[in-house]
Amino acid sequence: MPVPDGEMILDGARVRSVSPECLNVSWWRRHGAVRAAVGGRGSAALVDAHGRQLVLRHYRRGGWIRQLVADRYWWRGAARTRSFREWRLLFELWHAGMPVPAPVAAGYRRRGRWYTADILVEQIRDSRTLAEHLQSVALPIAQWVTIGRTIRELHNHRVWHADLNAHNVMLDVGGKVWLIDFDRARRRRRGLWTDANLARLYRSIEKVMLGQPAERFTPADWAALLSGYFAGDRRAVPRTPAARTPAAR
Q: Is 181 a catalytic residue?
């Protein structure tokens, strides 16, 4: 669907049509539909769309480069925009039964050699991030096993998550594990990147646990996650930072 200076895609089975303005947080604010800001760098907003809870995320850069180009990306064609890539991957994973946010719409606006982008997905209701849980309560061992199994399922789809951390793993009230924020994620041949994903998650949990009671995250917890991940796998557990026992800290 063409939009002024850009293009937009949507899931026709989920929504019949949406206005290009739905990818602009200012439009939602004018209608009093923004409930809260979420995400790092204030890049996302929770919006109420006639009873449906959605998350609108504007793509913003991280690191030092955001001081120069906070939300602009080099134009390399519509198919390679951050929003279209993430939307299409989410669409594939969602229809494959993976616990990821259902994609609603995505778009970009081009300005010369640069573009800005946005994505709209359904909110995961009644859920909190793994980081939020660990800051208040210790999780049952079975929950750690489920987290490991969910990450393994993602890797079985050959999907590399660019930022697998404690803030992008979510748990709902029923104990189901969800994975969010697939910006820059892509399919890859199986390799050492799977171990690196686990290592990144481990380091993230350690950061979250700074200043928290030690019993919130124990060696048994991480062992349970690895057990869930490697269930049925004959390969040895990789010798990466993620596989080290937390007792060595």
A: no
